[in-house]
Amino acid sequence: MPNNKKCFSRRKFLKSTALTAAAASGMIAAPSIVRAQGGSVKIGFLQPVSGALAYSGAQGRLGASLAVDEINAAGGIKAVGKIEPVLGDAQSTPDGGSAEVEKMNSAGVSAIVGGYASNICLATTQTAARYDLPYLVDVGVTDTIVTRGLKNTFRFGPGFGLIAKTALANLVAINEKAGKPAKTVMIVHEDSAFGSGLAKLLNAQLPPQGFEVLETIPHPTPTRDFNNVVLKIQAANPDIVVPANYYNEYVLLARTMQQQKVRPKAAIYSVLGGAASSYKFVKEFPEAAQFIMDCNHWFDPRNAKAQALKKKVEGQGQFFTYEVYLNYSATLLLADAIERAKSSDRAGIIEALSNSTFAGHIMPYGPTKFIDGQNQGAVPANTQVVGNDIEVILPEAFASAKPVYPMPRT
Amino acid sequence: MHLSILFPAIVNGVLTGALYALIALGLTLVYGVLHIINFAHGTLLTAALFAAFFMHKMLGVDPYLAVLLLAPAFFAFGYGLQRFVIGPASHGNDGNILLVTLGLAVIIENAMLFAFRADTRTIDVPYGFAVVPFAGMFISVPRLVGFGAAVVVALLMWLLLNLTDTGKAIRAVAKEKLGAQLCGIDVAHVYAMTFGIGTACVAIAACLLIPTYYVNPHVGNAFVLIAFTTVVLGGMGSIPGALLGGLFVGVVESLCGLYLGESLGQIGIFLMFILVLLFRPSGLLGERA
């Protein structure tokens, strides 16, 4: 019976390896218990650091960690202690995000910052609401994030209702100033909450402003082939193409348009374009990015702290993208609220956030003022890629260049 | 509407379809000839995509050059998998093979998820966005290369099956296993050879895909359904059928994407799958049972 012997020894082997694995995992888990001691406050930083949105998630985490390092280096939050970050990966899905919120809640965090994508934020804020866990949304632009009456949910940045309105007003202004060269528009958007919601808004608001929407093309995230979409753009020949999607798809769309030599007559005008105001995109694909306009989150270039942070981030070989400065600012804002609450108590932090008038951030928003969880001063800016840089073209208060419109046809 | 872009969309579909054909070629050999329903086919493609990705990222090897290394490596891997895992574990029962390959797919996929996480990764090669002008449109160079490679691989495989001793042995085993064994053919070896060739095809497809596609641990799943459709459409075990089926599937997908939108692009493939099963179960070029 040699076979039986073999079988026995294999089981024995399995048993022993399972024991070793269990012992090893116990050892790995041990340090977190050690770390939990001392005067500190746990804050959850939730980002999609894996999956389709991994790049944005990593950038968001970078911004938050820069703020945490800064606060902790200065001795932590007054009366509460140092920030103990609890990092979570939403895996680019709402389910993944919710699961992380559950974990963070069990870990005893006092508040959570992040979420990034609209559909992730919708799920995570709701999960956090079950535990009255203060949740500060970093980016997620869908308006329903703050209109569901969740008392725990706050958004520092602008929602897309306002962004779409601003984008539209700015587009009309730019077009009129140039003698109205553009009349037709095509919208290419990703098909989850953010892109679809935006497309719906634009479809409703563009025609009254004298623009005809020729076609609206949704696509999933991830999409790795934009040939058909670009063919449609070529056939419809719109004056303006409006892309609204995440980083990877945005870059691919722009590169496919360049590859197929398709250029709209007046502009590629993005609303929250995933890459349009990203230094990474401009540096890696300057030709595809040239003259692209975007209405998006942008830091306050007049703010010395913002410029210093930009230098620091770039000094680390990273790109100063909106995920970085929004998460940096949101983390500072939360720390300020915890300081004023004078404790890590969740209800106290929610109260302090509701009354926040924090001005120490680096966005052009002015002091924060939350009504129903939405920061009232939050506004987007219009940017344009010119040469190897990104210029602010509107609002005029801090514009660094005039719009190049209609874009030159090369 | 969109009539002017119909021709470029069809050309795009043909070029994408060539890669589907390449993936289906491996499957048609394993599934069509030996009747092994290989659920691990997609996962093996993912593994090959990761291999090509890391060879480029860490060693700087161009994906097209990586074929020379990955095709033999995956042949050996496939051979070993059939000879030492799938074969022995199935105990000669076809139903078991299905479960074994399904189990393998789950294990390999989750191992990759554990090792590489769910990140979607891409590589950037200088020719990734190169185009050649043709009849008023711009054709992507990597896709053109993929098309050429698919045709060459199909031709080589057809020659292998029809002109070599190994090919004769494969066909003999496919027709009558016991008879082949009585004639002195090592059936286990032939099974493993076939599986190895199928896996090598997947490695070639991966190297051709990676310059314009992405890789994550689940990426193969999308292709395995398309590959099964292609094999059924072209006819089980038919090499020209797999090639033709792949091209056809590519065109259908492209046109559906164009007219129904990117989100619904794949619906046409599966509609076609059902129609073929209903009206021509032996496939376009398959022999009637």
Structural class based on helices, strands and sheet pairing of chain A: alpha/beta
Number of helices of chain A: 14
- Poorly predicted ranges of chain A: 1-8, 19-38
Low-confidence stretches of chain B: none
Range of helix content of chain A: 40-55%
Please tell me the total number of domains of chain A.
Answer: 2
Overall mean pLDDT score of chain B?
Answer: 88
Task: Please give a structural write-up.
The complex is a heterodimer of chains A (410) and B (289). Chain A has 2 domains: 197 residues, Rossmann fold; 153 residues, Rossmann fold (3-Layer(aba) Sandwich). In chain A, strand 8, helix 9 and strand 9 form a beta-alpha-beta unit. In chain A, helix 2 crosses helix 13, helix 3 runs parallel beside helix 4 and helix 6 packs across helix 7. In chain A, strands 7-6-8-9-10-13-14 form a 7-stranded mixed β-sheet, with helices on both faces. Chain A has a 5-stranded parallel β-sheet with strand order 2-1-3-4-5, with helices on both faces. Chain A has a two-stranded antiparallel sheet with strand order 11-12. Chain A is built from 14 helices and 14 strands. Chain B has 289 residues and is mainly α. Chain B is 73% helix and 3% strand. Chain B is built from 11 helices and 2 strands. In chain B, strands 1-2 form a two-stranded antiparallel ribbon. Chain B is globular. Chain B starts with 5 loop residues before the first helix and ends in a 10-residue tail after the last helix. The interface between A and B is medium-sized, with 29 and 29 residues.
